[in-house]
Structure formats: structure tokens, C-alpha cells
Amino acid sequence: MQQVSQCFHCGEPNPTKTSFQVLINGEQQTMCCPGCQAVAQTIVDSGLSSYYEHRTEVAAKGESLIPDELQQLEHYDIEQIQLDFIKQNGNTTEITLTVESISCAACAWLIEKQLRFLPGLIFVNVNTTLNRAVIRWDNEQLVLSKILEQIQRIGYKAYPFQVNQQELFYTKQVKSYLRRLGLAGLATMQVMMFAIALYADFFSGMQQEFITYFRWVSFILATPVLLYSAQPFYVNAWRNIRNKTLGMDIPISIALLGAYSASGYATIVGRGEVYFESVSMFTFLLLLGRLLELRARRKASETSSNLLRLLPSMATLLETNDGIISHQLIPAKTLIPGQYILVKPGETIAIDGIIIDGQSNIEESMLTGEHLPVFKKSRDNVYAGTVNISSVLTIEVVNIGNNTLISDIIQLQNSAQQNKPQIEIMADIVSRYFVAALLLVATLTYIGWSLIDPDQAFWITLSVLVATCPCALSLATPTALTCATAQLNKQGILIKQHHVLETVNKIHHVVFDKTGTLTQGDFKLLNTHLPALGVAKYPYNKQQCINLAANLEMNSEHPIAVAFTQLKNQTLILNNIENIPGQGLQATWEDNGQKLQVKLGHAAFCGVTRELSSQELLIYLTVNQQLIATFELGDEIRESAMDLVSFCHKNNLETTMLTGDISDKSEQVAKQLNIKNVVKGVSPQQKLAHIETLQQSQQVMMIGDGINDAPVLAGAHISVALASGTDIAKNSADVILLGSDLRKINLLTTNAKQTTRIIKENLAWAIGYNLIIVPLAVMGLVPPYVAVLGMSFSSLIVVSNSLRLLK
């Protein structure tokens, strides 16, 4: 008896006389009905085939879900599907969407405006350069399908951003433009031949019916151009009109439809001029400009997409069965923390993990921008997207998918688009009102020329509508900022806030933390000083003191902790542990039945009145307020710190070291680096108060890395955190430096100045072009074909100028 197969989607038996199939992950899978076939095809077409890899049970039968577009959107609410593209933080969910058909700032404004009416929506920002939207909402009040449905209702198609889908979308757009461009080009050549002959009066000796015949042929050839090739302009214009907003495609559509209608009327009635060649040529040149602009904007968005391509889809899993180790190639997405993978030389690491066995050089330039390989050994961390160069490594899986460092970097890139600088907001507002002003000017032009020269009124008005370019104005700032951010990301500089590139140019004062910022934060225990015999009430030997200090430091993220934990050989039970940032640690320790109060930190915190004299950092250990050990710690200055401080002084920036360290080491470091001001022994609150005082009269940049730097990083005009720093510091900072090279701040400053200059050039061009072209067009000095050329290439010039930031 033949075995009946089961539906790949819902698990029910497949009928024997029908066949419904869907290609899923390279294999044809059989479905039981058209409903399941439609649902499965929707999931595949949306780039969400990984749903079938991760699901724990079959889906519900799909007969009731035969697509209708709004019902299809509900699939995005399935938890397993959402794993690949959402970021969850409590009740708040965040997603990056690809939005099709965005053409200008008016489109972005319209989407943002309509979505803000949804209950539960927290944040929305649409980037016209990348065709992406970052959206954040309360998942107890709102679901993703409702957001997608709202976007669809106003005429746009949106879906979760994924690299493969983005590539398909881009390819689809290019093919569509090429088809429309090809038709418009062929029709333009044919119509132009008749138009040139008519203009040159080549047919003056021929009968009127032949001239009429050629006009009708031109009419027929121009019709598919108007109805098909120019369709994107009408769709965008109608969308804007329907939603009561003004976009740049409205005047374009009026011009095209007006010229075609007037020429059609003249052909039908047999009198008046025809300009079918202008309609065809307008459409061809406009499409050519849009295609070139699309390619340029694609160039600007490549960087973040390229990061995602670094992740391999497969990984070699190591498994042990009855003492036999086996290798199995599996999808990287199916790995779980705690498993082990094998990475051979030349392979890209698929996850974030810890080296368990082996040592090798790792290429991390795609994360840090530093091209020299980094030597890694057992217990060192490695990251997804980096390349193993030298030797075979066995790696324990720690983080996968959305939790990897490379995913965090991409998330930061998206976050950088969330807060528009003031100059971009103003440009968006101006560009929207610009269209209204343009339509008013065009109306007045038509009325004025109707009184002066009625025969020229229509075509001069047409030139006014086509010549102006609000698109260049709306693209001037976001394109430059996107390119600058992408280039900085390649150098290992992650911009979290878009205002950074605008504010950096205004900085007057740079404030540094010392430990882990100006110094390497790689402390070494140089000496352990014990009190003289008979002096200490609680005598402990050197190793016992180190063990006690190490067990306390296990509860700290401060770089000092590493110096002790590496030397520990005993675990002690400590209770009531308290970490006081900038001061030290304290706990209760039960030793031989006694409950003892233990403190480790600065002299004042530990109650030590007689301090040792040293050029190094001194840490004191007390038990019940009795000194039992003094630790002398050494920490080297970063090689790049001197270059950064010198750069600040060359650019007339004042420098200050702001540190919680009260030892003489602070003055020593400041003197070596030639830092002008030193404020030491301050708490996190005192650091913040000092910054706030400085900011009353000047713009301040703060550079730090520790927990005690978090408040001041959040309070500074611009804050920079090192990637090696604590999570709370990185969360508080506006900029994160990957790697340890402080000279990247020099690059950030230089790039910010160049970005500001290019934005000003873009705005000067966009405003200057429109101020010159509009009066000329109104006076009838700009022929229609010159008008369309100027409009098309004006926005292209702005985008191309911005692309210089990628070099």
C-alpha cells in the first residue's frame, strides 16, 4: 500500500490526485491545499523561510488564509517568524523595515505622520536614502501586522529588512526602470524624427493629410510612454494627493499629463502645436535621473548590508557520542549557546564565542577598521563575521543571531538614523512647502503669460513645473549623513546619534577619563605590601590577601579586577557585597566563625590615614578598619593617547583629565600626555557636576569607559565610549570606538568637518539652482527639454557629491 505524504505546512495528509508545491530552502515541498500553498509561498516570498527551520510544530491549516493582502500580513505576528528581524526589550519591540516606492522627503513625512496615529506606537523614523524605516512600539498595545497594514493603506509596501529581500527589491526596481526607460527611449527616437522634420518644415510641400498622419503616429507612440513608462510618477502623485500632502511628483505629473492632453487635443481638432516628443523625452530623462539616483543611493546603503553578508550560513558542529567526536555541517541559525563548533583557517566565524582549544590570528577589520590581525588564544573572545587566519579553533557558542556583536553594530547603524539633526528637519519642512510654492508660481505664470502671449503660456508653465527640483533640497542632508556614517562604521567608529556629526564641529573642550581610556586598563599587580609583624590585628599572608581582594573584585567590572582574579587560587564566600563606583568595594566575610567587615579601595574609603608614597596606583585592603595589605598596581598609557591629546591642542581644544583615582598616578599621566587640567578623586556625581559647570560656557566632549563614567557620558554634549568598556558606559555614549585606537576620534572630527562642508555645498547647490532656474523659467527663457535635464541632474549632483564621503 502506497504511503500518503503529509503537508509540509500543516502536517495533514496530501490528496493523491492533486499537487500543490512550494520551493522552500532549495527543495520542492508538497502542500495539501491551495490555502497552505498560499501561506507557505507568502512566507517564502517575504524572505522568512527560516520559520520552517526553527518551528517546533506544524502550522494551522491554511484554507481560511488564502491570501488577501491584509490577511497575509498577519504571518508577521508569528513569534517564530519574528525571531530573525525584531529586537525585544521588555514590552518594547523594535524593527527595521524596507519600504518600497519612497521617492522624497514628503513620502517619509507622510508615513511618519500616519503611523503616529496608531495606539502603542513609540517611535518612527523613515530614511529616504536607505528606503528603510525604524519603528518602535509597545507590543501589549500594537502588533506588527497593524503597522504594515497602516503603511499599505497609504499606498506603500513594507516588510522586515533582510539582506536577501533588499537585494531582490533593488534588482526588481532596476529592471522595472530599465523596461520603462527602454520603451521611453525607443518612442522618443521615433517621435523626435517626425518632430524635427515638422519643426524644420521638411513637409511643407506635402499635403495636410500626411502631416496629420505623422501627428497621429506620434500620438500613438507617445501614449504607451505616458501610460506605462511614466506610471511611477502618477502613482506617487496620486498617493500624495490622496493623503493630502505635497510631493515632488505632483508637478511632474501635472506637466506630463498637461503636455500630452494639449498635444492630443491639437491632433484631434487639427490645429495648434503638438509636443509628443517633449512628453517622451521628459519621461526618458526623468527615468534616467531616477535610475542614476537609485544606483547612487544604493552605493550609500551598501555598508550595513555588506556587514550582514559577512555571516556564514553554515557552521561545523562538534558532537561527542560515546567518546567519539563527530563533525556535522549545520545551519548556523540552529546553533544554541553552550555547543562547540570547529573553525578552520580561512573560514569566517558564524557566532560570538570563546576559544576552547587552539590559538590563531583573527582578522577583525570588518568590526574595528584595524587591518592588522589580532592574536587570540584559549579563553579569548571571538566574534561573528571575523575571519580565522592561522590555525584550527574549537569555539564555544555564546551568542547567535540578533545577540551577536555584528548584529549590535547593525542595530547601532539603524539607531543613528533615528534622531534627525536640526538642519535635516528644516530641509524636510522647506522641501514640503516648496512644492506648494511651486504650484502657486506655476499658476501665476500661466495667468500672466495668458495675458502676454497665450500661445506660449502653457509651455512656459510646463517648464516652470519641470525645472524646479525640491528633491535635491530634501536629499542634501540625509544622503550626506548616511554616507558619512557608513564610512565611519568601516573605520570602527559607531555613531549612535545623528546629531554627533553636527555637534562635533562646535566642541571647545575634551574631557578624558584616565583608567581604561588614556591608559590601557590592563593592570598588573606590581607589589603587595603587608604591615609589619605585630602591627596588624588580623595577620594574613600575601596569597590570602590576594585571594580576599580577588573575591571582592569578582563583583566589579573595573579593569583593576583583572589584576587580582588572574592570581586567585581560592574561592571565599562573601555576603552583603556593595560596589561603590569611584571608591571601592565592601562586604561581610565569615572567617573562623567571625563576621568581618572587608573593604578594598582608595585610602579615604577604607579609612587609611597613613598612605604609602608611590607613582603607581595604590589600593588598600582592610578588615574591620584594620589595614592588612596595600597593593601597588601598574597600568601603561595607550600609544594613541599622545596623538589624540596633541590633535586636540593643535585644534585649539582645551583638555581635562577627570578621574576617580586620587593617587599621584593621575598627575604623572597628565604630565606625560601634556593634559592641561587634572581633576582627581571625584565621584560619578562630582564628575557630572563638573561637566555641567563646563557646559554652561562651552561645548564639551567626554571620553570614558567605566561604570562611574555612565552619568557624565549621558550628560555631555557628545560622549565617546570604548568598546572594551562596560555595557552601561556604551549605552550612555553617543559614539562607540571599536578597537583601542584613540586616534579614531581625530578621524571622527575630520569626517564631521567634511560632512558639514558637503551638506552646505549640497544645500547651496539645491537652493541656488532653484533660485536661478525658477525666474528664468517664469520669464520663458528655459526650454522644456532644458528644464527636465536640469531637474533630473540637480538631485543627481547632490547625491554624487555626498558619495565623496565614502572615499
From TrEMBL:
Keywords: ATP-binding, Cell membrane, Ion transport, Magnesium, Membrane, Metal-binding, Nucleotide-binding, Phosphoprotein, Translocase, Transmembrane, Transmembrane helix, Transport
PROSITE patterns: ATPASE_E1_E2 (PS00154), COF_2 (PS01229), HMA_2 (PS50846)
Residues in HMA domain copies: 93-159
Record's signal peptide: none
TM spans (from-to): 181-200, 212-230, 250-268, 274-292, 433-452, 458-481, 763-782
A Pfam family: E1-E2_ATPase
Membrane topology: Multi-pass membrane protein
SUPFAM superfamilies: Calcium ATPase, transduction domain A, Calcium ATPase, transmembrane domain M, HAD-like, HMA, heavy metal-associated domain
Subcellular localization, as worded in the UniProt entry: Cell membrane
NCBIfam families: ATPase-IB1_Cu (TIGR01511), ATPase-IB2_Cd (TIGR01512), ATPase-IB_hvy (TIGR01525), ATPase_P-type (TIGR01494)
Similarity field: Belongs to the cation transport ATPase (P-type) (TC 3.A.3) family. Type IB subfamily.
Name of the protein: Heavy metal translocating P-type ATPase
Phylogenetic lineage: Bacteria, Pseudomonadati, Pseudomonadota, Gammaproteobacteria, Alteromonadales
